[in-house]
Every structure is written in C-alpha cells, then in structure tokens.
Amino acid sequence: MNHVHLRAGGVSVLLDTEGATLPRVLHWGADLGALDDAAVAEVRRASITPPASGTPDEPFELSVVPEQTAGWLATPGVSGHRAGTAFSTAFSVTSLDVAENLDAAGVPLAGRVAVAAHDEVAGLTLAWTLELTVDGLLRHRAAITNTGNDVIGNGIATPPDAVFDLATLDVVLPLPQEAREILDFTGRHLRERQPQRHEFTAGTHLRETRRAHAHDGTLLLLAGEPGFAYTHGEVWGIHVAWSGNVRSFAERAMPSGQAVLGGGELLVPGEIRLAPGESYEGPWVYGSYGRGLTALSRRFHEFLRSRPGHPRTPRKALINCWEAVFFDHDLGRITAIADAASEVGIERFVLDDGWFKGRRGIAAGLGDWYVDEDVYPEGLGPLIAHVTGLGMEFGLWFEPEMINLDSDLARAHPDWVLRLPSRMPVSSKSQQVLDLTVPEAWQYIYDRIHAILSAHDIGFVKWDFNRDLIDAGRQATGTPGIHLQTRAVYRLLAALREAHPDVEFESCASGGGRIDLGILEYTQRVWTSDVLDPLERQVIEAGTGLLLPPELMGSHVSSPRSHSTGRQHDLSFRAATAFFNHFGVEWDLTKASPEDREELACWIALYKEHRALLHSGVALRLDSSDPARRVHGVVSHDLSEAILGIVQLKPGLSHPPAKLRIPGLDPDRTYRVAPLSPGDELLRFRGVWAPAWWAAGIELTGRVLAESGLRAPNQYPEHAAIVRLVAVD
C-alpha cells in the first residue's frame, strides 16, 4: 500500500505511505473525490518540494511526526535524549493497518490508520493513529516506547536500564499556502476566549499553557485565507484534547514556506523519563477544516453529539445559589430561594461552595468533605428533601483537587500537598493543590464524594478547580507532578461516573479555565465563565461555541447588576444571552421584583419549549460588516425551523441597520419570520425604530433570505431580540 485516502463529510485526508518513512499528509481539506493510483502518484509528484539554493540535496519530507533526518529543520515531532545520545530519530515503519467504517467507543468513524515504526539506533518505537469521523473531523496522536538495549548504534555500551528523557511528542498537519492568517484566543479570568488575529508570517506562533488552568489559553488554533469568517474563506484548525499543560503551534518554515499546525502535551523537564519497556502516549490532537468557521465548528459539534456519553435528555433549567448567598449559608434563606426558583419553573437547584466543614470563607475547609453541622445540624437531608419535594433535582459543588492548609485534612496529611519537598508553592485563593498521585489521597477523595452521592438524592455535581498548578512537584520524589495529576483526575472522574452513572458532572475552573475535549470525556457540561455580565458573555460564548455545541455550555441569568463588572442590564438582555445554551439562573430570586419573576418565568417556559431545537440543531452564525451587531442561532437539520438572536453590542455604524442575509435555509421553502416573545422586547420601547414586518411577521423564501435578506430592527446598545423562522410550505 503506497497511499491511504480517507473521505467523509466533504473532507479528504490523503496520506503518502510509500517507503519506510513515517506517513506524509499530501492533502487535508476539501474532498478530492475518488482517486486511483495514477491520480495519487500525480498528487504526490505535485507535492514534492525540490531542492533549492542553500538547502539539502534531497527534498524534505514532512511527516505527521516531523523528523530532522527527513530534512525537516523546523520544530521536530520528537525531542529528547538518552543520556545525551539518541537526540535525533529516524523511524522506519514496521506495520500499517487501515480500517474503514468502524466505531471508536461508539463514535462512528469513516476510517482509522494505525502505524508502528521503530528506530533501532535510538532504541525507540513510535505508534501513530489517525481517525476520521463520518462528519469529517480528524484526530491523531502518537505514542513512544523505550526499547533500548545494552548497545546503541554508536557501539558505546550503556546500562540496560538507561532511560529516555522525553521533552516533546507533537503531531502536525500541513497547511496550504492559502492559509495566511491566524486566529486564536486569549484572555484572563472573567474575560476568556478573546479573539486575536494576525498575519501568518515566517516562524512559529506558539501557544503554551504551563499551569493546567488556561483562562488565557486557546481552545482552537486556526489558520485560513485572509479575512475568513463564519460563512466564507477556507480555514483549518486544531484543538489539543488535554486538561493539563498543552502546547499548540502554527509554523511556517523557511525557505520552503511550508506551514503546519501542530500540538501535544507540554512536558515539564524530567516529567517523562521512560525506562526500558515504558511508554508515553500523547493526547488526541483534533483537526477540522471548513469553508468558513461555521462549517469547521459543525464538525466538532456533530462529533461531540455522536459520543455515547453525550447528554440525551432535555437540559434542565437550573439555579445556582453562589451569587445569591456566597458563604452565608442559612437553611431558611436557601429554602426560600428554592421556593422562588420552583415558582418560575426551575428544574435543578445547585448548592455551591460553603456547605462543608469549616467553610465560612476561602481560607479554610477545602479537603474536609463533611457537611458542616454548625450550618446544617441535620445534614443536607432536610434541604435536599425540600428541593426534591418541589419537583427539582438537587446538585452540589465540590472542589476535589484542592486543599486549604487550614483544614483537618492538611493538618493530618501535610504530605498530601502537591509540592516540592523543599518549599511550598505560592498560595492562590488561600489554597494549595491536593496530590492525587498519592494513592491514599486519591482514595480519600473518592470515598468522601462517593459517600455523599450515595447517601443523598443528588443528580448534579459542579466540579471546580480554582487555582493554577505552580511549582507542582511531588513530595515523595521531588519530580514534576502535572502530567500524573491530570491522569489521576481523569481516573477519579471515571470511577465516580461508573459508580454514579445518573449524576451529571460539570467542569468548572474559576469559570472557563478548563474546557477541552479531554475533560469532556468525563463531564457533561462546562461552566463557560465566572462573569455573568451578558455583554462579556456574548464574546466569551461566541469563542467557546466554535468548539462546543450550546447544550454543553452553562449560561446563567444574573441579578440586574453584574457582580463581576458592576454593569446593569435589562432582564431581556441577560435572558436572551443565556437562552441558547444550557440555561440557568444565578440570582437571589427572593429579592427580584414580581415583574422580573414573571418575565423570568416566561423566558424559562420559552427555553423549555424550544430547547430540543436549540440543543440539537446546526449552529447558524451570520457575518456582519458592523462589529456592533452579533447575529447567531440554530437551524434544524431538516431546515424546517430556525431561531436567531439579534444582539446589539454597542451603538451601530448605520441607522437603520443593514439588511440581514440569513444563509443555511432551504432555498425553495417559504419561511415565516417573526419575533419570539418575550424576546420581542423592542416592542416595549417607544422611539426605537423597527421595520414594518416586525410586529406582524413576514414570509420570504430561503433563497430570498440568503441572497437579499431583510431589514433588521434598530436596538439600544446592550439589548437583544429573538426571531423565529418556520417553514410554511
């Protein structure tokens, strides 16, 4: 076999497997159609980079794990050494297996390629796997094994137990010359997923997360044609599915100009030292291609929805009591909030931080996972009975990976703190990290959470993670601990999920600090950000939504004045922002006015009525020449219905606003377009211009909506409206 051609969902991945070197990607992008051997030979011939002035005599070959020995002089796929030797690899393929039309843990695949290769001189074996889903999403990963023996290639005897110190194991995908612009995301706590664009110039654009807590990290690293947007421009992107330290890079090597997207786990020096026979497997690195960001994003959404563990039942409208009470827990006050929540239609009540022993503030209690009898003298039973008696599900907050030094656990087991033997890491939020690589610590946390979930009727766990992993060594060995800590967290979540399959787990990390497809193998929801200001949320959720479908993103309606920013917004804007995602409330409803409670109940009813479409349909995003406006929504797979949010972020550039062209509908069907109450809030304001169709609705074909559009209403800044489109023929 001299090539492999996988095709699915409008995507082709063409691999050159001729010879003994590692596979080379000849094409990753739009479907090439059926190719015979002669056509592949021509593609291969057209892809060869000939020698040039000042370059090696042989053309370089860029493999999926790049090697300097193949002429690639940019970032290598494998870096490391064996006591100063074996610093460069020359892998030779020993086996190649191709399987088509199969499942991977229940996920339908168009095909899988598995390659094994060996470097006898370096004493290393490499395994590389690529999978293509039926929707055209690609993922690949590599693993390396130390097969060293007594003698390596230069004839110098080495001890049989010589280790191989692994520094990096990255996998890459090539990009065409058309990919000349980079888009990725940065930010901070309370401002995650802020987009940044720039030219794809020569050199390496490297993004690293060195603290396993990535508010400033990028969910996606994207490269495409200049000006690519939601609906136009070819674009390619990668995502590293790992919840510890990660690295991703966009690189343009010179003088060839060959561009790649690559990534893997970021390893701390000395973190992976492979004794003979030991292996290390890197995380999945996902790749998606599309003509426009929406097409690229859809591949991720459909893959996530195809997983066996993806939530299938309606996403319960919930209330979280954190911003209502903080640490001031009082049974009477909390039950009153639950009563008010039930009255407006809430289906899940979540008790946040402050319920366990000694937890009256951030400085104490973490690790002591016992109900605080001073606050709940009869335990959580009475509160849970009250909540479930109202017809709501009960949820509970944990932060299992952290420990306060002011806790019974830390006093009893100071050796369970993740730290170097000689020093304590700097404090963050008055807490340290619990070393879950210590078997007894892991078992203690499992036992405590398991006991609480077993003793009570609990259907939801908010799993928080509130500090960076800084100077994260293991006391017992003095070695780095981030990789092993991440693995231990995965094992802990897997064990609890197995013991409590009906409990839904949310990944929270001071909001959006841990959102990746690694943690989402064990959780069913992410907390997108700690900021509840809807204006901030519009940007954060737009970025997060490129990777995740809306049903996985928690989005809440807060009190009128945002706790994080101090800004005030109308309820219509707060609710319209949360409406499309997994809807929730974080507000002391006992202090809300009767009018606000009545309107909130209408929003919750609207969410329940339409969540089946919101959480199964195809994301619909409109490009806009005016950055003041965001238009987004969802369309059903059969194209019979769509719902759009029209969001005015700031004062517009034109008045009246430009017409909206709405793609993604059936061009030959007629749609009735009308505002959806209570998302028709424009009608409540005098002096706000609205087009003639706004009050009574309008009927237009999908072709007219896509090619000509319709006039959108003018809105006050920081307001939103909801529009529904329903096919009438």
- List the uncertain runs: none
Number of strands: 38
From the spread of the alpha carbons, the general shape counts as: globular
Most strands sheet: 10 strands, antiparallel
Please state the CA-atom Rg, rounded to the nearest Å: 27 Å
> How many H/I helices?
13
In angstroms, what separates the terminal alpha carbons? 51 Å
Category by helix and strand content:
alpha+beta
How much helicity do the residues have?
Answer: 10-25%
Averaged pLDDT = 95
- What percentage of the residues does DSSP assign to strands (E)? 25-35%
Question: Your description of this structure?
Answer:
The chain is α+β, with helices and mostly antiparallel strands. Helices cover 19% and strands 30% of the residues. The protein contains 13 helices and 38 strands. Strands 5, 6, 7, 8, 11, 12, 14, 15, 19 and 20 form a 10-stranded antiparallel beta sheet that branches. An 8-stranded parallel beta barrel has the order 21-22-23-26-27-28-29-30. The model has no long low-confidence stretch (mean pLDDT 95).
Features:
729 residues, alpha+beta, 10-stranded antiparallel beta sheet, 8-stranded parallel β-barrel, 13 helices
Question: Quick summary of this structure?
Answer:
By secondary structure, the protein is an alpha+beta fold. It is built from 13 helices and 38 strands.
